[in-house]
Every structure is written in C-alpha cells, then in structure tokens.
Amino acid sequence: MDAERIKRDTVVIAVGNQKGGVGKTTNAIHLASALAERGRLALIIDLDMTSGATKALRAPTDGWISSFELLTGSEAAEDTIITDAEPEVPLPPNVHLIPSSRKLAELDMFLAQNPWVVQQDLLIEPIRALRGRYDYIFLDTPPQKTKTTVPALKAADFVILSAMPDHLAVSALGEALQDIATAQQYANAKLMLLGVVVCALPRPKTRLSRQLVSYVERTCIDPSGRTLKFATEISRSVVVQEAQRLGKTILQYQPTHLVAGEYRELAMEVESRLSGIRTGEASASVPAQEASNG
Ligand SMILES: Nc1ncnc2c1ncn2[C@@H]1O[C@H](COP(=O)(O)OP(=O)(O)O)[C@@H](O)[C@H]1O
Ligand SMILES: [Mg+2]
C-alpha cells in the first residue's frame, strides 16, 4: 500500500483499434504486467462491456463495483479499484484493475437521464483523481467508437494501436488513425500515437504476414518518415490462449516463454519511446494526425 502513496508521473495509454479480436486486451494486460515486472505500478481499466480484460484476469464481471460506477461518478474512482492485494482476484503483482460489467450497457440510459453530463468527458474527472497513484493507466477499449472509446481518447495521453497480421485488422488501423486525428482536433490536442504493436505473428512468418507487417511499417510513420510500428513483434502461440483460459498472463504462466520475453522487450521499447518524448527527441511525439497523413 505504501507504494501507492508515492506521487507518480502517470502515463495514460488507451489501447485501441476499430476491430475486435486484434489483441487489444492481450496487449494491454501483458504490457501492464511486463511494466510491473520492471517495478512500475499499473492500472488496467476495462471499458469493454464484454469484459475481456476482466475475464482474462479472473476478476468478477458481476456484483462488484466496476468501470460503470467510475464513468458515472457514482463511486469515488479509488473505490472502484481491485488491487493486487485482493484475495479473491489473483492479479499479477503491481497490476490493479477496474473491472467492467454488463452494467456498461446502461450507459446510454444514464446519459439520456443526465442531459448535463457530456459523454466525451466521462473519464476526465476519474482519470484526474487517479493520476499520481500509478505509473501507467491502460484503458482497454471496445471495438468501434462506442460510448466508452470516445471518453478514453479524450482522457488519454497516448494511444497504442494493436494489429494482427490479417487484412481486416490492418485495414481497421486506418480508421483508428483517423479517429485519433479527430480526437486531437475536437477533444484532446495533446493526444499522441505512441506506437503500433503487431501481435500474434505466425513463426516462421508467412508471406502474407510479412506483407502486412511491412504495410503497417510504411503507413504508420511520423513526418520524418520514421515508423511508429514497434520493432518488437509478438509471436502467435497457443500458450497465450492457454494462459488466458487459466486467468493468467503468459508472464505468470510461462515466464521463460518466447512471448513473455517479447512482451518484456516491448515494455522496454515503450519506456524508451516515452523517455525520448519526455526529453523531446523522439519522433513519436508528433501528433498522430500527421502520422496518418504521412
Ligand atoms: N500472441 C498471441 N498468440 C495467440 N493468440 C493470441 C495472441 N494474442 C492474442 N491472442 C488471442 O486472440 C484473441 C483476441 O485477442 P484479444 O486480446 O481479446 O483482442 P481484442 O481485445 O482486440 O478483442 C484472443 O483469443 C487471444 O487469446
Ligand atoms: Mg478486448
């Protein structure tokens, strides 16, 4: 608990892509865990009604205070958190969770009944209340521009996009880049695309996957032409799904597995990009809008 009292310089990262089943949740959970292994304190906020992150971390999807209460402000932000000290939920060390619940389906009704509540601002106060407590807050978003994706893009500092090497996942990236540009223009001028994770890559790479990876590399670039695709690629392995079925991350389930190592490497790359941005030298600090035009 003492660790939580330290004032931290919180980085808020929304993990996105318009399409479902492209690794958003897996990447959010594993990045949070790999950063936690590096000594950081991470919080995952599950904003998806289907509760992918909540289920993958074996947290309850019903009967607990959830991201619905966080978004509607009916509970104080800190009271919605499940910590790694919660005996009923086996969270990885230094990873905390705000679970989602089916109540998120009632968000529309909440907004209709509260005409003064602005949808895009739903996460502004909660995130403000949580800043300083964590090194990283990951917002695991649902596919499509649903009622929770827009508030996530408004409240986040960065976006990490997720893509698997299939045509639909890659083509949805273009739409995601457009969304980031729109969010920058209308809601959050400081929002930046931190990078694109390509995950679930077959090994050895097929011709198609090589083509798609190279397409991502060429299209997600900053104005100086440097790619925003992370150099670390995550391999496809059934062990990822096996671990998820057991409610564990691969870092917990098979810490020496290739994919566990890749997520550790990705965490290092994320931190080195962030420190480059802090010192003002990294090209990733360019707005995503320029990247999408590039
Ligand atoms: N590296 C990987 N290897 C194998 N399967 C993976 C890998 N990453 C993700 N998956 C699987 O792909 C599916 C979709 O991933 P998920 O993270 O839930 O995507 P999203 O959150 O975008 O819907 C899940 O069944 C997950 O277990
Ligand atoms: Mg998901």
Properties at a glance:
alpha/beta, binds adenosine-5'-diphosphate, 294 residues, Rossmann fold, binds magnesium ion, 13 helices, six-stranded parallel beta sheet
How would you describe the overall organization of this protein?
This protein is α/β, with parallel strands linked by helices and 294 residues long. It has one domain (2-293): Rossmann fold. The chain has 13 helices and 6 strands. It has a 6-stranded parallel sheet, sandwiched between helices. Helix 8 (167-186) links the parallel strand 5 (158-163) and strand 6 (192-198). Helix 2 crosses helix 12 (258-278). The longest helix has 21 residues, at 258-278. The protein is globular and about 50 Å long. Bound molecules: adenosine-5'-diphosphate (ADP) and magnesium ion (MG). Adenosine-5'-diphosphate (ADP) binds next to helix 2 and helix 10.
